[in-house]
TrEMBL record:
GO molecular function: GTP binding; GTPase activity; ribosomal small subunit binding; small ribosomal subunit rRNA binding
Record: residues binding GTP: 17-24, 64-68, 128-131
Location of the KH type-2 domain: 209-288
Ranges for region G5: 157-159
GO biological process: ribosomal small subunit assembly
KW Cytoplasm (keyword) present: yes
Localization annotation: Cytoplasm; Cell membrane
Protein name: GTPase Era
Membrane topology: Peripheral membrane protein
UniProt record similarity statement: Belongs to the TRAFAC class TrmE-Era-EngA-EngB-Septin-like GTPase superfamily. Era GTPase family.
Entry keyword set: Cell membrane, Cytoplasm, GTP-binding, Membrane, Nucleotide-binding, Ribosome biogenesis, RNA-binding, rRNA-binding
Stated role: An essential GTPase that binds both GDP and GTP, with rapid nucleotide exchange. Plays a role in 16S rRNA processing and 30S ribosomal subunit biogenesis and possibly also in cell cycle regulation and energy metabolism.
């Protein structure tokens, strides 16, 4: 490989792929710090959170998009718009397909949409979770992926197996234009803290409720203020919005125990993020059909 030490590249990348394809995990591993929210449950990443990978020869700003899906509600449409917008803005797209799941209609749908919108954006085909299967299956998956659309490169990778991470990084960097660092070295995300905090609360609130709620839950940070006379404590006031009374009961749990656990879990993660003590004031409110109401969507940050 030829590389000139004088050349510095910088630009934007995003990963696409069906829910659970390993996009957030790959982003976090490349960036080296947990900025996007990962979860074993699909579709937890809603906001475009940028993580920044810094190398001596390049700066890659990774935009984490929500999963693309056939829109059924206004929220679904907004999420998809966000995805298209992101695709047209980045320098390179990484299309992730897990090695241990057959390529299906979901992947084909993404490939079709991608082909429409990113005529001039290079797409790298990435087979994720390579550690979960044998090398033969990985090869098969690479071949199947190749059938979907035009890729600039194809590569298998495993984050947990620390396999080919450098190669993925190189293939993405290669597509960036020459240029200086766009963000100062230390910064890893330019999302406002309140967005990250809301995401952490949402993640905690989703834990353990399986498939019941994912799309019916939104979190709004109403206020974050240092406590009077105790500046080392930050008071965070947040509301978890659900669509129906029945969902409210699920989130709160018997005798309020579940909500208490959610609070404890979220507080732990928020304190780790901010590096300071917080008091979390959590409420659950019903906002009827918030996913279909433009006014409510705006208020909740969509
Ligand atoms: N064994 C193995 N598991 C992985 C690897 N990468 C990701 N996973 C797991 O796959 C699951 C999904 O990963 P995520 O990174 O959350 O997937 P995602 O594509 O961001 O999912 P959404 O946010 O729902 O779109 C998680 O349980 C990860 O721990 C890998 O390289 N090897």
């Amino acid at each position: 490989m030829t590389s000139s030490n004088e050349t510095h590249r910088s630009g934007f990348a995003c990963f696409v792929g069906r829910p659970n394809a390993g996009k957030s995990t790959l982003t976090n591993a490349l960036v080296g710090s947990k900025v996007a929210i990962t979860s074993s449950k699909p579709q937890t990443t809603r906001h475009a959170i940028r993580g920044i990978m810094n190398r001596p020869d390049a700066q890659l700003i990774i935009v984490d998009t929500p999963g693309l899906h056939r829109p059924r509600t206004l929220l679904g449409e907004r999420l998809n718009d966000l995805v298209y917008e992101t695709w047209s803005e980045v320098d390179v797209v990484g299309f992730c397909v897990p090695a241990d799941e057959k390529i299906g209609p979901g992947d084909r749908y993404i490939a079709e949409e991608l082909a429409k919108i990113t005529q001039h954006t290079p797409v790298v085909g990435i087979v994720t979770k390579a550690d979960r299967v044998g090398s033969e299956r990985v090869a098969e998956q690479l071949l199947a992926l190749q059938e979907l659309m035009e890729f600039t490169d194809l590569v298998p990778v495993s984050v947990s197996g620390d396999y080919q991470m450098d190669v993925v990084s190189d293939l993405l960097v290669r597509q960036l234009p020459e240029g200086p660092q766009l963000y100062p070295g230390g910064e890893i995300t330019d999302e406002p803290e309140s967005t990250l905090i809301a995401e952490l609360i949402r993640e905690a609130a989703l834990e353990g409720v399986r498939d019941e709620l994912p799309h019916s839950l939104a979190v709004l940070i109403e206020e974050m203020v240092p406590r009077e006379e105790r500046e080392d404590i930050l008071d965070v006031y947040a509301v978890i919005y659900v669509e129906r009374e029945s969902q409210k009961a699920i989130v709160i749990g018997k005798g309020g125990q579940r909500l208490k656990d959610v609070g404890t879990q979220a507080r732990k993660h928020i304190q780790a993020l901010l590096g300071s003590r917080i008091h979390l004031d959590l409420h659950v409110k019903v906002a009827k059909d918030w996913q279909r109401d433009p006014k409510q969507l705006r208020r909740l940050g969509f």
